[in-house]
Design brief:
The chain is α+β, with helices and mostly antiparallel strands. It folds into three domains: 150 residues, 60s Ribosomal Protein L30, Chain: A (2-Layer Sandwich), CATH 3.30.1330.130; 58 residues, no CATH class; 105 residues, Orthogonal Bundle (Arc Repressor Mutant, subunit A). Helix content is 42%, strand content 19%. The chain contains eleven helices and 15 strands. A five-stranded mixed beta sheet has the order 2-1-3-4-5. Strands 6-7 form a two-stranded antiparallel ribbon. A two-stranded antiparallel ribbon has the order 8-9. Helix 8 packs across helix 9. The relative contact order is 0.07.
């Protein structure tokens, strides 16, 4: 089958998944064809299906195309989403160990217009040009080293463990261990949701009997801005002397940790960290005296609330 015929055939399949044809679909199909070829995968949905893992770096149209062409998906644990916001994907051959990252060139948009200058609609020009442009005008490729941890590989879950705080179960070694306790990531560092009414973190039945659980967060103008997760991050920075290392300790990306810091500074109106440039002792970060004082006060409030909750619980429920 000719290359152009192959592209059209794959686009037809991709559109069934995505719902419409767009330039991003064409990019995703072309990116997949190139990446698979570079790592020696000929039949990704057939005999090579167990040898392929794809890392995608953006949640846009191209991602649906990559899933359609490769057969990889989050549910199969053969597609890994890295929220980098880049039009890029890395294709991994598990059998040979070869990994190639394919990145869409930024100037490909400009070059696309040169192929169809008569088209007034630039998006239509991109769509048509991406079909026929050479790979080296569309993409940069690079061989990369990737080590996939055992708990991230396709297959049955390695473990399933209960969070000591909320009582929900966590799979595949995603738990966080703090102070001798096993926590899920939302309980340890904060999640994308807050329970509006009853929360398992408030009260739960444990294997030891009935217990009371309390959870503290601070709000400003009706919006939550500080809780246990951010407190753990600040304590990790204080202990490690590094935002990057503290992010790793609390299972956050550096970008998210830095976002938390900037958000706290905006809400509190004070500097949270002092960053130090590298030198013979390397760079680092320390908490400002103001935020240390704030953190100590938060810890005191949390400790007093916990003690009050335990006392009232014993008073009402007895032993």
């Amino acid at each position: 089958m000719k290359s152009t015929d192959r592209i059209e055939s794959l686009l037809e399949e991709s559109v069934k998944t995505h719902g419409h044809l767009c330039a991003g679909q064409v990019l995703g199909v072309r990116m997949s064809m190139l990446g698979l070829r570079e790592i020696g995968i000929e039949d990704p949905k057939g005999r090579d299906r167990k040898n392929l893992v794809v890392y995608i770096e953006i949640d846009r149209c191209a991602t649906d195309a990559i899933q359609s062409v490769t057969g990889c998906s989050l549910g199969k644990r053969t597609m890994k989403f890295m929220d980098y916001g880049k039009m890029a994907a890395t294709f991994v051959n598990l059998k040979t160990g070869k990994s190639v990252r394919v990145l869409a060139k930024e100037d490909s948009r400009t070059k696309a217009r040169e192929y169809f200058p008569e088209m007034e609609n630039r998006y239509e020009a991109q769509l048509e040009a991406y079909r026929i442009m050479p790979d080296d005008e569309l993409f940069d490729t690079a061989c990369v080293d990737i080590k996939i941890n055992r708990e991230d590989m396709p297959g049955r879950p390695l473990n399933r463990i209960k969070c000591d705080l909320c009582g929900e179960y966590v799979q595949d070694c995603r738990e966080v261990r703090r102070g001798g306790r096993v926590l899920c990531r939302p309980c340890a560092v904060g999640g994308y949701y807050n329970n509006a009414f009853f929360s398992p973190a408030v009260m739960q039945i444990s294997h030891n009997g009935l217990e009371v659980k309390s959870k503290l967060w601070l709000e400003l103008e009706g919006q939550p801005f500080f809780g246990r997760g951010k407190a753990l991050l600040l304590k990790a920075i204080d202990q490690c002397g590094s935002i990057n290392q503290a992010a790793k300790e609390t299972n956050l990306s550096y970008r998210k940790a830095w976002g938390y810091i900037k958000a706290m500074e905006k809400r509190l109106g004070i500097r949270v960290v002092e960053c130090h440039a590298g030198g013979k002792n390397g760079g680092g970060a320390t908490l400002t005296p103001e935020v240390k004082d704030f953190l100590e006060k938060y810890d005191l409030v949390e400790k007093d609330i916990r003690a009050a909750a335990n006392s009232k619980f014993r008073e009402i429920f007895g032993r």
